[in-house]
Amino acid sequence: MRALKNKAQRWDLQALKDIRATLPFELLGLDCDNGGEFINVELFRYCESESITFTRSRPYHKNDNCFVEQKNWPVIRQQVGYARYDTPQQLAALRQLYVHLRLYVNFFQPQMKLVEKIRQGSKVTKRFDVAHTPYQRVMASSASPRRPKPCCGGPSCNSIRRS
Question: What's the pTM?
Answer without folding.
Answer: 0.70
